[in-house]
Each structure stands twice: as structure tokens, then as C-alpha cells.
Automatic annotation (TrEMBL):
This is Dodecin family protein. InterPro entries: Dodecin, Dodecin-like, Dodecin-like_sf, FERM_domain. It comes from Stenotrophomonas bentonitica. Gene3D superfamilies: Flavin-binding protein dodecin. Residues 1-67 form the FERM domain. Signal peptide: none annotated. The lineage of its organism: Bacteria, Pseudomonadati, Pseudomonadota, Gammaproteobacteria, Lysobacterales. Coiled coil: none annotated. It holds the Pfam family Dodecin.
């Protein structure tokens, strides 16, 4: 029988949503082993005064197996 746990993390990138997800998962994988997947719970942007996107932010739910 397998047991999975879900943690929630926030990550950001100046480039794209994909880069934010990638960097968040890479950082989590430094301490969490057995990552099975993740889903984007929320996407946000930071803008400058003229409405240009300056940063992408994601809230991820990461699933991993507990041994």
C-alpha cells in the first residue's frame, strides 16, 4: 500500500508560468523525494504601473510518496 502526501508551495519567475513551476519543483526536490506530480492551484501576476507583467507567481500542490 502506498501513502501520498500533498504540500503546497509558492514559486515565481520573471519569465513565465512554466519557469515558475519548473523552479518551484526543482527547489522542492532538493528536500522532498518521491515526487509524483503537481498541479497549479493558482496563477498570479505582478504588474508595473502601465499594466505590463513583471513577475509570474504560481501556487502549486505537490504530491509525493511517503515511505
Amino acid at each position: 500500500m502506498s501513502v501520498a502526501k500533498i504540500i503546497e508551495i509558492n514559486a515565481s519567475s520573471k519569465t513565465s508560468v512554466e519557469d515558475a513551476v519548473r523552479s518551484g519543483l526543482k527547489k522542492v526536490s532538493e528536500t522532498v523525494k518521491g515526487i509524483q506530480g503537481a498541479w497549479i492551484n493558482e496563477t498570479k501576476v505582478v504588474t508595473d504601473g502601465e499594466g505590463n507583467i513583471t513577475e509570474w507567481r504560481v501556487n502549486l500542490r505537490v504530491t509525493f510518496l511517503v515511505s
